[in-house]
Amino acid sequence: MIRHLASESFCVTSLYMNIQVEGKEPERLDLFLTKQLPELSRSRIQALVKTGAILLNQKTTKPKATVSAGDIVSVTIPEEVPDQVLPEDIPLDVLYEDDDLIVLNKAPGMVVHPAAGNREGTLVNALLHHCDGQLAEVEGNERPGIIHRLDKDTSGCIVVAKTTHALQHIVQQFKDRSTEKEYLTVVQGCPPRETDSVFTNIGRHPVNRLKMAVVNPGSGKEALTDYIVLQHLAEQDSTLVHCILHTGRTHQIRVHMHHIGCPIIGDVIYAKLNRQQAQPGRLMLHARRLCITHPVSGKRLNFIAPLPQAFSPWTAHSDAPILNDA
Fold first, then answer.
1. Active-site residue numbers?
2. How are the residues of the chain apportioned to helix, strand and coil, as percentages rounded to the nearest 5?
3. Which of 11, 55, 87, 238 is positioned for an S-S bond with 129, CB 3.0–4.6 A?
4. For residue 287, what is the enclosing H or E element?
5. Are 309 and 155 in contact (CB under 8 A)?
């Protein structure tokens, strides 16, 4: 069990937290933090340790230092000064492309755009190479073409704009909620109803600022997720669920599934992995379908991201329409 202490605070220029280790077998500090802070690469964590931004029991330490029960790890993640984002020759799974936009099946483990701890190997780096720099300009210049995001460990459909007109048009579609976004996920246990809607407010977690949480009305932002149970595998105590998003809050499906008592399989932030029988080795969340209106032609476009192999134990037993590639 890991406890994020209430002394944690958040400011514009940095993120600070104390993490208390409880009931944990001794482990290398850098490996421990890689699991607790999945948005940071191990090399980034090692660099923060070496510069003194990460302390062990209020003392400077080394990445290979051992953490044990009772230790307190203090982490300060400073805001990085933006560098030029460089193109990188990284393979992409392109679902559709024209002069205005490109739609991809994002691989799990790929960060969408450069940020603290991930300056290279992102989707933006790959797109700058693939599109020869032809991406819509965005303020800050670190997110060219980016309209919406998928979490690092989520796979599936994502649309990126090549022109300013396309960017503005599709951003407005997301704001107007005229897009259609459908996901597949595998959750721990079985949801309480075969089909239901989860309507809450979602905001920053009051203690762990790297997490989101269901918050009281009047704070956070409204979030609505419809879900349909597709297939339950009793032997793995897990269920394939079809989620339909009506809003696009950070970690929305992950927070809502946790809220109904069914955290997503492989979710290192919202689930306790040692209590999950299914161990596919990834976050079981896939952006299966995205439907938008083309910003120039006005034609309605429907995109389906192929089913990841990791989902096959559950999808093989269901004939739900969302599983059809047509």
1. 151
2. 20, 35, 50
3. 87
4. strand 285-293
5. no
Residues whose CB falls within 8 Å of the CB of residue 171, separated by 6 or more in sequence, listed in order: 147
Q: In one letter, which amino acid is 86? A: L
Mean pLDDT of 42-48: 89
Give the integer Cα–Cα distance in Å for 80 and 172.
Answer: 30
Task: State mean pLDDT over 75-94.
Answer: 83
How many percent of the chain have pLDDT more than 70? 91
pTM recorded for the entire structure: 0.77
- Give me the torsion for CA of 306, 308, 314, 315, rounded to 10°: 20
Q: What is the pLDDT of residues 127-150, one digit of tens each?
A: 999 999 999 988 666 789 999 999
Homologous superfamily, domain 177-326: Pseudouridine synthase (3.30.2350.10)
Domain boundaries, the chain: 2-78, 85-176, 177-326
The helix/strand/coil state of 2 is strand
Query: Cβ distance 15 to 76 under 8 Å?
Result: yes
Q: Residue 244: which H helix or E strand, with range?
A: strand 238-245
Sign of the Cα torsion 282, 285, 288, 294 reads negative
